[in-house]
Structures are given as structure tokens and as C-alpha cells.
Amino acid sequence: MKEIDFRTHLLPLKDKLYRLALRITQNHPEAQDVVQETFIRAWERRSELAKVESVEAYMLTVCRNLSIDRCEKCENRNIPLSQTDADAPAADASAQERLEHDERIRSVRKALELLPLRQRMAIQLRDIEGMSYHDAAHAMDITEDVLRVTLHRARTALRQALEKEFNYGL
Amino acid sequence: MDYKFIEQLLERYFAAETTAEEENLLRAGMAMPDLPEHIAKYREIFECMRSEGEKGLGEDFDQHIMQVCGVAEQPRITVHAQRRSLLQNLRPLWQAAAAVAIFALVGIGAGRSFNDWESNGDEVQMATGTDIKQMVKPSVVDPAQQTASADTLKMEL
């Protein structure tokens, strides 16, 4: 039985947990609280945690459940994200191009925020965290086939949002 | 350049049929400049995903969560890097080489002086007929001969 060390096994997962919590709650303070609670729960049950196959999968599941609980409690209090600046385009891009680029990034982000919860989670785990279909499906407690369908819908929604923005821009 | 491959990957990506490796290829492809417009218009999806993946919690959170969980913080060990020049780095090598050189010089010097001494001895012998080495060599006196000479001395007295 391996011994769980807080710094070695748990702390490196903080950013991944935070991003998942943020994707679900769409609120920075809520996401931070969820991560804190996830760590507290995991540390309290470290003897159980030592027996699990994947500490990361366990932590992600706890984080997901806590985030969904929080979401249900404060359904209408979600503050849209989109506080971060859009990625800077190439240095030689004109101001107009930069503006259009920023606008399209904002559209994608907005479309991502408007996706149903399951689709947001699928995009988060697969496209942002780069997890395999197997691990992402396990963390979401769904089958790989369901994950693929969810992911297809989510990506198509993002594509349509971007196409709409692109056509509107023209 | 043929963008057909990227286009195909893109379609498979939207259909959630791509593998992790194919998605990595697609990300690299979408970051290329001068993509045709019908492909480039989806670039922002990948840029958005990348920037979303860079979000995280700061070090303040680490200290806070460790305090909350009652995990003692380890004293931070700071190691100051020291800038050393190439000559300083090679100093042990120079020292070892110098030591070897000194030993070699002393050995060669000692060997040469011994040879000189031997050749000088031969020259003296040739000139005087005396073997200088024999002169220097401590004479071993026969004890019986020594006793006899002592008796002779007594008789004379």
C-alpha cells in the first residue's frame, strides 16, 4: 500500500481540479472553494485514497461532484467568465485583425460557457486537459461511446458559434 | 502545401473520431501561418482551448491549503548558484597536471645527476688509476685481520 503524500500526490493536481471546477461552476471563487474542499476531503480519507488505482481520477470525481452540488445550490448566480484577455495574435497583425481575432476568441469562450454541463466537462477533460477517452469517461462516470457523442455535440456547437461569428464579421 | 490532411483531421475532430496523436497533429497544423481561410477560421477554437488550459491557482493557494489540511510546510532550501569561469572549472585538472610535471622533473633531475656522478667517477679512475667509487665505498675490515693488527700494536708497546 502506497503512502499518500500531500505535496507529491495531491498538490500537483490543484490546477487541473481548479480548471474542472471553474468549467462547471463558471465562477472563480466557487471553483477555488471546491478545490479546497476536494483537498480537505481527500486528505481526511488518505488511508482510503492509498488503495485507489488512480488518485487523479478519484480527485477529479470528488471535484466534479462537489462542483455540480455547488452549481445546483446557486444555479442563477453564475457570473460569466471571459475575464481573461484573449490570446494575442501575431505581432504584425493590424489593429483590425487583432480586434476580429479577439472577438472570435470571445465567441468561442462564450459558446463554451453556454454549453450544457456534460458537454462542458467533456471539452474540459478531453480538449483542455488532454485526457484519453477512457480516463475522461471514467472521470465523468459515463461510457466512452456516450463521451464521444457528447464531445461531438460540444465541438459542433463551438464550430457553429465560430462560423456564425465569421459569417457575421464578413 | 497540401492542406487536405488538416482538413480531413478537422472534420474527424468535429465528429469526435480523432485519437490523441491526431489531435496533437491537428493542433500543430492549425498553428501554421498562411492556412486557407476555410481551415483558418477554426483556429480560434484551438487557441481558446490552449489558453483555458493555462489557468491555475497561485502559490498562495498552496500555503493556504497546506495550513487548512494541517500539513507542515517544509523549510525552503535555497541554493545560490555560483558563476564559475572555465579556468576555475579546470583548476583541479591543472593542479593534477602540475603535480605530475613536478614529480617527473624531480625524477628526471635525480636520474641525470646520478648518471653524471657515475660518469665523473669513471673519469677520475681513468686519470688517477684510483677507483673513486671504491674510495667512497665504506671499507669492510675483516675482524680476524683487525684482531691481528691490535696484537701487533700491543707487542710494539
Structure characterization notes:
Chain A has 170 residues and is an all-alpha fold. Chain A folds into two domains: 6-77, Rna Polymerase Sigma Factor, Chain: A (Orthogonal Bundle); 95-169, Winged helix-like DNA-binding domain superfamily/Winged helix DNA-binding domain (Arc Repressor Mutant, subunit A), CATH 1.10.10.10. Helix content of chain A is 72%, strand content 0%. Chain A is built from nine helices and no strands. Mean pLDDT of chain A is 85; it is low at 83-88. Among the domains of chain B are: 4-52, no CATH class; 101-137. Chain B is built from nine helices and no strands. The radius of gyration of chain B is 47 Å and the shape is elongated. The termini of chain B are far apart. The chains are: A mainly alpha (170), B mainly alpha (157). Chain A binds chain B through residues 6-7, 11, 14-15, 18-19, 22, 32, 35-36, 39-40, 43, 84, 86-87, 90, 101, 104-105, 107-109, 112, 123-124, 127-130, 132, 148-149, 151-152, 155-156, 158-159, 162-163, 166, and chain B through 13-17, 20, 23, 33, 41-42, 44-45, 47-53, 55-57, 61-62, 64-66, 68-69, 71, 74.
List the helices and strands and how they pair.
The complex is a heterodimer of chains A (170) and B (157).
Chain A: H1 6-10, H2 14-25, H3 28-44, H4 46-49, H5 55-73, H6 95-114, H7 117-128, H8 133-140, H9 144-169
Chain B: H1 4-14, H2 20-30, H3 37-40, H4 43-52, H5 59-69, H6 86-89, H7 91-128, H8 132-136, H9 143-156
Sum up the structure in keywords.
heterodimer, A: 170 residues, mainly alpha, Rna Polymerase Sigma Factor, Chain: A, Arc Repressor Mutant, subunit A, 2 domains, 9 helices, 72% helix, 0% strand, elongated, B: 157 residues
- Number of separate helices of chain A: 9
* Number of discrete domains of chain A: 2
Order of helices and strands of chain A: HHHHHHHHH
The structural class of chain A is: mainly alpha
Reported for the largest beta sheet of chain B, the result is: none
Helix content of chain B: 55-70%
